[in-house]
TrEMBL record:
SUPFAM superfamilies: Nucleotide-diphospho-sugar transferases (SSF53448). NCBIfam families: mycofact_glyco. PANTHER family: GALACTOFURANOSYLTRANSFERASE GLFT2, RHAMNOSYLTRANSFERASE WBBL. Residues 52-84 form the HTH iclR-type domain. Keywords: Glycosyltransferase, Membrane, Transferase, Transmembrane, Transmembrane helix. One of its GO terms (molecular function) is glycosyltransferase activity. Pfam families: Glycos_transf_2, HTH_IclR. The gene is mftF. Belongs to the glycosyltransferase 2 family. Residues 97-262 form the Glycosyltransferase 2-like domain. This is Mycofactocin biosynthesis glycosyltransferase MftF.
Amino acid sequence: MGDASRDALGRYRLWDGVSLRSGVFVSRRPLAVTTLNESAVDVVSELETTAFTSPTAIAAATGYDRSAVARILDGLHQRGFLEWAPARDAAHRPPVSVVVTVRNDRANLQVCLDALATLAYDEYEVVVVDDGSTDGTAALARSHSLADAGRLEYVSVGSATDPLGIGASRNHGVEATSYDVIAFTDADCRPRETWLAELVPVLAAHDLVGGRIRPAGETPADVYEGVNSSLDMGAYAARIRRDGQTPYLPTANLVGRREVFESVPFPDRNVAEDVDVCWRALEDGYDVVYTPMGVVEHAYRTSIRSFASRRADYGSSEALLARTYGHGDAVGLPIWLVLVALSAVAAAIGGTTLLAGGVIGAAVVGYSTLAVVRTARRLRTAVETGAVVRSLLRSTLSTVYALSREVTRYYAIPVALLAVVLVPTSVGTAVALALSVVVALPAAVEYAVHRPAVSPLRYGQYYLTDHLGYQLGVYRGAIGHRTLAHLSPVARFRLRV
């Protein structure tokens, strides 16, 4: 269990675009307004948009109870007014054991060990766990400068024909370490010089911490991964929550207390072992957090074939996790969007149903317009009407984007097959056209927002390979684990007004 006496409340600061006006707290993106009482105003007034401040510091400055301050700040964070970051103590720099697992990846391991040798950290060791390599990995590890300096231990597990696997290899790595703080990375990763110096201080208050993972190169695959990598948890810190925006920490960049890894060992498998460790650690009461600091660069697979294979492996783990833990959070499906879809179907069918579709469409437009007017009137003392309209438009686009991406990732293949079956009819044509729009929309939005340094066609190629490869893995996992829990539309979508 995590130590409740440690200050694990984290730190807070104002998001850019957030302002306090006469007791009214306003956030521009996303647009939100709330009225604060006197004590909440006092608490918020201690925050800045640059430096993070802890509830403990604010309690000392205002005289309020620390728990009450923490509740106010957490509530405002959950509603999007405040940015959160984990607590950290720069003086907390205990010795660290770094575990690197490898199998037949000598060239990447060389670069990884070279990066580890330059870490700006006082005391650390490196444990290389070799799972039956036959490419000279052992000789490389034993002759590296880290070994010459007495900082590297080589551990051989498995064999060329009977490898132990990633999860079990990591557990052997834990057993071979000397220190009470253990960090994990992989042979195809290059930790930056400040990796441990930025992450280890977080363990003064928290139990597990993961840092950001960024591409190591500039190939088209790296550029795409820079936008859509499943290993990159993003630019903002977060508490790990199964149903949250940051649901787990990849072991390519994971640092924690020995106690956690001994209490919650890695499962004996090669996929989603890091997800399992994070979720079981949460169940056991450990505090698991993410920070965009402590960056590790990852050498992504560059060929389309290997890229698709990796995505399929990721997708296949969903069935296992759904069977073990149940499906996580669902994407919100607005009723108005359901009405629009029904209108489109009615238009495709034609006849008298087309009139019904038109009536439904008019009702949708009227409902949306009324919502804008009501929201503008309610907020007119704090926010101008134009800001309300722009916010609602952004919210609508975000909703359509999220739903389109979900359909593309999980249902594009069966819907495409349905369209092929129905293609001689107008309904089949309508389904095919609708699917084309649904698949293309998220890619177009991502390209416009992030402006990656590749052509739209190249980005689209990796985008389709990503989602269709992942989807094939999802269905492969469903068959292998005999469950559809992760594919049920009832579980993946929730109706909302």
